[in-house]
Write a structure and sequence with these properties.
By secondary structure, the protein is of the alpha+beta class. It has helices at residues 5-14, 18-27, 34-38, 45-57, 76-96, and strands at 32-33, 61-66, 69-74. Strands 1-3-2 form a three-stranded antiparallel β-sheet. Strand 2 and strand 3 form a beta hairpin.
């Protein structure tokens, strides 16, 4: 199966913001309403929507409508795929780390 580098780049780009990383940490405890996430930050609702759109489009977060509220949760399958990808890079680094040693 070919590696989709574009998808991984999108995920890592989404992780390139402190607020979004904090949101992911919050969601690790379970599904949250946008209003619950908003309470923890000094940002406006449109700014939160912007961050959630980036996280959702990258595949890191699932969203669903519950009446008038938006609920968000981690997309654990996507996070696990990203973790496997990064572990693979790390394993490759470890196996080639001594490629240029001088005797």
């Amino acid at each position: 199966m070919a590696i989709n580098y574009r998808e991984y780049a999108s995920m890592m780009k989404a992780l390139g913001d402190e607020t979004r990383i904090q949101i992911l940490a919050m969601l690790s405890a379970g599904e949250l309403c946008a209003c619950e996430i908003l309470e923890k930050f000094e940002i406006t609702q449109p700014t939160l929507s912007y961050h959630m759109k980036i996280l959702s489009e990258s595949g890191l977060v699932n969203s669903r409508r519950d009446g008038v509220w938006m609920k968000y949760s981690l997309n654990r399958a996507t996070l696990e795929a990203l973790q496997r990808f990064l572990n693979g890079i790390n394993a490759e680094i470890q196996t080639t780390n001594n490629c240029c040693e001088l005797d």
